[in-house]
Fold:
Amino acid sequence: MSARQMLSSLGRIHVTHNTRFPFTEWEIVNLAKEAGLYLVDEETFYPWQYPGYVNKRGAGNCDESFRVGMSSTFKGTRCTRELAVMSAKLHCYRLFKV
Structure:
């Protein structure tokens, strides 16, 4: 089951991902759009802001940690018609704001 399917109408999905090459090739924002999600925020991720946070590797090395490096937390919600319209208006406002 997809996280999007479990998301309430006001809920958000947070995904923290490395923002350096080659991880940028994953194109997280585009993947979210394809899944019907709308990006509402992106914040730089600082592990020390999350007491008890420990990252883990996948692919057979699940108990090993790794250097986090430059990462962001992407926050998304369901893409609704209202959000799309509001987004377009905000984008135009930002483009033409003097």
About this structure: The chain is about 30% helix and 20% strand.
